[in-house]
UniProtKB/TrEMBL annotation, chain A:
<protein>
    <submittedName>
        <fullName>Sugar ABC transporter substrate-binding protein</fullName>
    </submittedName>
</protein>
<dbReference type="Pfam" id="PF01547">
    <property type="entry name" value="SBP_bac_1"/>
</dbReference>
<dbReference type="InterPro" id="IPR006059">
    <property type="entry name" value="SBP"/>
</dbReference>
<keyword id="KW-0732">Signal</keyword>
<feature type="signal peptide">
    <location>
        <begin position="1"/>
        <end position="24"/>
    </location>
</feature>
<dbReference type="InterPro" id="IPR050490">
    <property type="entry name" value="Bact_solute-bd_prot1"/>
</dbReference>
TrEMBL record, chain B:
<feature type="domain" description="ABC transmembrane type-1">
    <location>
        <begin position="110"/>
        <end position="324"/>
    </location>
</feature>
<feature type="transmembrane region" description="Helical">
    <location>
        <begin position="251"/>
        <end position="268"/>
    </location>
</feature>
<feature type="transmembrane region" description="Helical">
    <location>
        <begin position="41"/>
        <end position="70"/>
    </location>
</feature>
<keyword id="KW-0472">Membrane</keyword>
<keyword id="KW-1133">Transmembrane helix</keyword>
<dbReference type="Pfam" id="PF00528">
    <property type="entry name" value="BPD_transp_1"/>
</dbReference>
<feature type="compositionally biased region" description="Low complexity">
    <location>
        <begin position="1"/>
        <end position="28"/>
    </location>
</feature>
<keyword id="KW-1003">Cell membrane</keyword>
<keyword id="KW-0813">Transport</keyword>
Length: 438, 337
């Protein structure tokens, strides 16, 4: 009986342990591309203030598509924290949606899995060719020299948002254009429980967006020409240190921002606790937090020279969402038709207008909805001074490990520890050693 | 699992006619043995559906995970992971080499998890047992307290841990509001979700979430301790503390044996608490093995290394469980003798 009890105990233990073991997988099912011509499944990313808002924006358009083509689109809005995992699970099992939104920075990583339909010239011709799209947006659709893994759907760029009243109270007459001006202005604005600039120190993606742009301004790319990680170059170290120093040395970012990861910096801005944020298409969020459009202004993000442009004057990453077709779709024709619909001039005007983003389709940018000061800044930035994040297969890993390194440095700065060139290089070196072997 | 299966085979229903034909002469044998067989076989037959699901839901994924651990599985082979190149023991040597970054990080995470588990299980058990013993005596409001104590166990984990995450926020959180703003215990408001303090934050949430289970189990165990033992003890002049040590704790031994094991496995494997509290990049001080494995697999897309770590974790926990069951069973037999 004792032996049986031990055996039963072991069985129970095995059952309990199993929960941590990696999940199983399978080979692709190789779905028939025309098996269900009348339906499509669409995974949309969360673009509005909440999932319900997205459904309200998208459902009328999907009904329009159904009326025109007879194809029913089943919509699922997937929250950002789940989207990449869901796509990976779908890739492993071969059971996924027909059409899906992806963060445009994931394009190369997902392209490497082979799960997404390559947009060769034939497929591109069906949606009017690549010339219809803004060049910068199309540069963020996959590794150079390969057929794109997706096409641009919504575009965004970074800009400096500032609180007009806080600026006026501090006697600041114009938004800072250089980093030196930002620091000087920041010191005038900080004090009495208020801070000059908001940051999302624990948001890995946002950390990457910020240090990538600063890296460009220091002439560093984080990856070499062969696509190998190069995180510890002098330029990369200087870029990361410059960003963290806004808290550590200049003290114009509140220490509490080190733990922000859920857009708390935007609520602080809307509540008048911070005077500036570097953000992308933030208008809808400010409005949902009760901030009037007249209360804030927008200017291009600072660069060292004060004049945004190409090369070392890049002041934003190309931010946005791409639309991809799952390679295993059982309705290829319908999926292509749906992408054509979503990237049509008319739908681009409607959708980007609702979401407050810039249409990546050039012909759709002329609508009155896009003639606001904010969108003019974002549109110009996208067209003239934005660069895509590295289009390499290990981009997702880069976001995680370098984003974490910046998070750790912010944590150190917030706790009062010194952030030095050596400590930054050590963190980045640790990050680089976590990257997959090339 | 295999020994259980072999145990069921001789008692399978097909064996019944054979038993009858072999012993036709004895008058009592044929009548008694089929009944005995039915009685002993029935539990196993009833177990079969659960067993089949167990194989499908648990054992099959374990086997898949073990297979993956021998493969170079990155995003390039995700779509058809069967075709990923074999790496032999490469993943294991990489994550076990304390000189290499992956091995060093895993070792640190493992030690953190051990420390965290010992502290959490110890506190859960202590609190649970103390509360159960305290609530043995009937008094006004006892039922209310019992229900109140079980609330953390009844709450959905995600909702509860998200609430804790809000409470631990540095600038607007309740914890700092009490400790710093009201009691003035700290010079500046500390971070709880970053840096070394994250270990204590994690421990507090884990104990808060885990002790009601210990309380529930010990309370159930106490119902089986005969009142006469306490009465006899009281007549012999034993005080409360002496009664707890000499009667309560020894009577609870079988219950505690299972309780500590289950708490240990749950705590060591806990993923939800650290993941919801810290997101996908937990601070080093709270980087539990399960989050570490998730980070290696899903954040850096190295599923082979993640699977190898999972297999090592499985082996470690099986070993601990085996040794624990062996020692406690032996101890109990000695006590029974």
């Amino acid at each position: 009986m004792r032996r049986f009890r031990a055996v039963a105990g072991a069985a129970v233990a095995a059952a309990l342990l199993a929960t941590t073991t990696a999940c199983g997988g399978g080979s692709p099912t190789g779905g028939d591309a025309d098996a269900s011509p009348r339906t499509l499944t669409y995974w949309a990313s969360n673009q509005g203030p909440n999932l319900e808002a997205d459904r309200k924006v998208l459902e009328p358009e999907l009904r329009k598509f159904e009326e025109r083509t007879g194809i029913t689109v089943e919509l699922e809005v997937v929250p950002w924290p789940d989207l990449l995992n869901r796509i990976m699970a779908a890739t492993t099992s071969g059971q996924g949606p027909d059409v899906l939104n992806i963060g445009n920075t994931w394009s190369s990583s997902l392209q490497a899995t082979g799960a997404l339909l390559p947009w060769d010239e034939g497929n591109l011709a069906r949606i009017g060719g690549r010339e219809r799209f803004v060049e910068a947006a199309f540069a963020s659709t996959g590794t150079a020299g390969r057929a794109p893994a997706a096409v641009p759907l919504y575009s965004m760029a970074y800009a400096l948002y500032y609180n007009k009243k806080m600026f006026a109270d501090a006697g600041v007459t114009r938004p800072p254009a250089t980093w030196d001006e930002l620091v000087a202005t920041g010191k005038r604005l900080s004090g009495n429980g208020r801070w000059a600039l908001g940051a999302e120190g624990s948001n890995l993606s946002n950390n990457i967006h910020q240090v990538f742009v600063l890296g460009k301004q220091h002439g560093a790319d984080f990856f070499d020409a062969q696509g190998r990680p190069d995180f510890t170059s002098d330029g990369a170290v200087a870029a990361v240190k410059q960003y963290v120093d806004l808290m550590a040395t200049h003290r114009i970012v509140a220490p509490g921002n080190a733990e922000y990861a859920q857009n708390q910096s935007l609520s602080d801005f809307a509540k008048g606790r911070t005077a500036m944020v570097l953000w992308q298409a933030a208008a809808t969020t400010f409005a949902s937090q009760g901030m009037d459009d007249n209360e804030w202004g927008v200017a291009p993000a600072p660069v060292r020279s004060g004049a945004p442009g190409r090369g070392r004057n890049v002041n934003s990453m190309v931010s946005g969402v791409n639309l991809a077709v799952f390679e295993n779709t059982d309705n290829l024709d319908g999926a292509l038709e749906f992408v054509e619909f979503m990237t049509s001039d008319e739908e681009q005007r409607i959708l980007c207008g609702r979401y407050g983003s810039v249409p990546p389709v050039k012909a759709a940018q002329d609508g009155p909805a896009f003639d606001r000061p904010e969108l003019r800044v974002l549109r110009d930035t996208l067209a003239t001074s934005a660069a895509p994040l590295p289009q390499v297969p290990s981009e997702s890993q880069f976001e995680t490990v370098v984003g974490t390194a910046v998070k750790n440095l912010f944590a150190a700065a917030a706790s009062g520890d010194a952030v030095t060139t050596e400590s930054v290089r050590a963190e980045l070196d640790k990050a680089q050693r976590q990257m997959p072997r090339q | 699992m295999t020994p259980v299966k072999t145990t069921t085979t001789p008692h399978a229903p097909t064996a019944v006619p054979a038993a009858r034909t072999r012993a036709p002469g004895t008058a009592r044998g044929p009548r008694r043995r089929p009944g005995l067989l039915r009685r002993t076989a029935l539990p196993y037959v009833l177990l079969l559906p659960a067993l089949a699901l167990e194989v499908l839901v648990h054992l099959l994924p374990i086997v898949m995970g073990v297979l993956m651990s021998f493969k170079e599985l990155t995003q390039f082979h995700l779509r058809d992971w069967g075709a990923a190149p074999w790496r032999g023991l490469g993943n294991f040597t990489a994550v076990l080499d304390p000189g290499a970054p992956a091995g060093e990080a895993l070792l640190r995470s493992f030690l953190t998890t051990c420390l965290f588990t010992v502290a959490s299980v110890g506190l859960c058990w202590l609190l649970g047992t103390a509360a159960a013993v305290f609530l043995q005596e009937a008094f006004r409001g006892r039922a209310l307290l019992r229900a109140l104590f079980l609330v953390p166990y009844a709450l959905p984990v995600y909702a509860a841990v998200i609430t804790w995450a809000f409470m631990f926020q540095r600038d607007d959180g309740l914890v700092n509001h009490v400790l710093h703003d009201q009691l003035g215990l700290t010079g500046s408001p500390p971070f709880w979700l970053l840096g070394d303090n994250s270990f204590w934050a994690l421990l507090v949430v884990s104990v808060w979430k885990g002790w009601p289970f210990a309380f529930l189990v010990v309370m159930a165990g106490l119902q089986n301790v005969p009142r006469e033992l306490y009465e006899a003890g009281a007549l012999d002049g034993a005080g409360t503390w002496r009664q707890i040590r000499a009667i309560t704790l020894p009577s609870l031994r079988p219950v505690n044996q299972v309780l500590v094991l289950v708490l240990f496995l749950w705590t060591f494997n806990d993923f939800n608490t650290p993941f919801v509290l810290f997101g996908k990049a937990a601070p080093e001080a709270a980087d539990l093995v399960s989050v570490h494995i998730h980070q290696s697999s899903f954040a850096t897309w190295n599923f082979g290394a993640g699977a190898a770590m999972s297999v090592l974790l499985l082996c470690f926990l099986l070993l601990v469980t085996g040794v624990y069951l062996f020692l406690t069973s032996r101890g109990r037999k000695a006590a029974d003798a």
